[in-house]
Amino acid sequence: MNPGRGIPETLLSQFSDFIAARMGLHFPRERWRDLERGIDSAVRDFGQADAQACIEWLMSHSLTKREIEMLASHLTVGETYFFREEKSFAALETHILPELIRRRRDGEKYLRIWSAGCCTGEEPYSVAILLSRMIADLDDWTLALLATDINPHFLRKVASGRYSEWSFRATPSWIRERYFTRTADDRFEVDSRIRRRVASSYLNLAEDVYPSLLNNTNAMDIIFCRNVLMYFSKERAQEVIHNLYRCLVEGGWLIVSPSEASQVLFSEFVTVHYPGVILYKKDGVARHRRVDAPFPRWSEGSNVPFWPPIDATMPEPTRRAPAVAETQQAGDVGRKTEEPRPDPLGQAQVLYGQDRYDEAVETLQAALAREPGNTEAMTLLARTLANQGKLAEALAWCEKAVTAGKLNPASHYLLAIILQERGQAADAVASLKRALYLDPDFALAHFALGNLVRQQGRHKESERHFQNALAILDRYPQDDRLPESEGITAGRLREIIRAAVPKEIAA
């Protein structure tokens, strides 16, 4: 029996293979109905007569990245709601966040959380609501709450912050009443105090570079990547998971959906079992940990969780030690770099590229002790510290680099990125403008400045910087890696801008 509705089974099979090869998306036979539904919705965008013609056209043409990502937006489901998978939120609220908040409260108050594959935004806004209830002085904290997706339509909804009744189907009514306002068209708009805490941007987990200071995906405390990995082939999923691991600080958490849990795919992580949920922690030392009480209920008039009690017979949280293969791999990496390099800066660059940040910092500090005026070492040290989440130290070293090399636009650009991560948007704008004064053709600085001023509501200025960035990028060969980009090519940044900004700018 043909799983589709009129499309030959052989064509669906070929198209499934095509999607896996070109996009890393996985559609086995049992999901061919989902595949056909996605194509049905894409027919108009690709100007085809019907689903079969659309498939044949897609498979016979050399698709641009923009066309591939347009197709991906139709093949992924925008189905979510506020506080989805409540047991994950229960573990987050009653165990993970309290410990994290306690550690940060007496030092530099900051939290970095990423909703990767945020869909229409219910997930990151749920996190923002939770944080607003848990941290009374949240305005005194530097909060980076990043929401990314491949679908520009979804991102526009995140930016609008407007939702229908259906998005609240598993949420207590008082959440909607307290944090949302009913609009004239009978929708619900998230409170501006919550909305301003969420920054949304375009990112393709299968194609883009992360972790990276450019897209703010570095030094994350918590990453949500739920109901996303199921769209990838096993090989592509492993690549994505490894990159997410690199994006986390030591002790950071990855939260996936229960259906995506896998000891094989998440072998780099320590597996932590909480009642009714499995989470993954980036932790070099596996330790046993207890949760002695069930999750309490969060009632409307209190500050304790609303989650229903968990069955007390659930197993206690435990951690799985890293797999033998992982330990051997780590040892192999160490052996490869045992031979000392004569150039400390070159050695530090290798260590940085391997995400061995502690060793890179040690090497750079030793190099600077011998050569205090080495601006290149200062800049790399600032970048390394930023990737560890040590933003105050990163800022101090970057300011030293700027002082030592006032005419270096790259130092001003890095300073702006660090300032932005610390929530100092006005100072970040000023640093980006200095970078562009020194180098008017600095495409990344135009892109970063366009994003910053757009967040401030300065849309005309934002459009000008995006247009400038596109004009500069048109001079580069497609595959040229951009300076200061940590591997992003000119063609890729061009596609990101065109996917994320209004059509009249991208044209």
What does it look like?
- By secondary structure, the chain is of the alpha/beta class.
- It contains 21 helices and 11 strands.
- The chain has an 8-stranded mixed β-sheet.
- Helix 2 crosses helix 4, helix 12 packs antiparallel against helix 13 and helix 17 runs antiparallel to helix 18.
- The chain is globular, with a radius of gyration of 24 Å.
- About 10% of the residues have low confidence.
Defining traits:
globular, 21 helices, 10% strand, 507 residues, alpha/beta, 3-stranded antiparallel sheet
Short description:
The protein has 507 residues and is of the alpha/beta class. It has helices at 9-23, 32-42, 51-60, 65-75, 86-105, 122-134, 152-160, 173-179, 192-195, 234-247, 324-336, 344-353, 357-370, 375-387, 391-404, 409-421, 425-438, 443-455, 459-473, 490-500, 503-506; strands spanning 110-116, 142-149, 162-163, 180-182, 188-190, 198-202, 220-224, 248-255, 270-274, 277-281, 319-320. Strands 6-2-1-7-8-10-9-11 form an 8-stranded mixed beta sheet. Strands 3-5-4 form a 3-stranded antiparallel beta sheet.
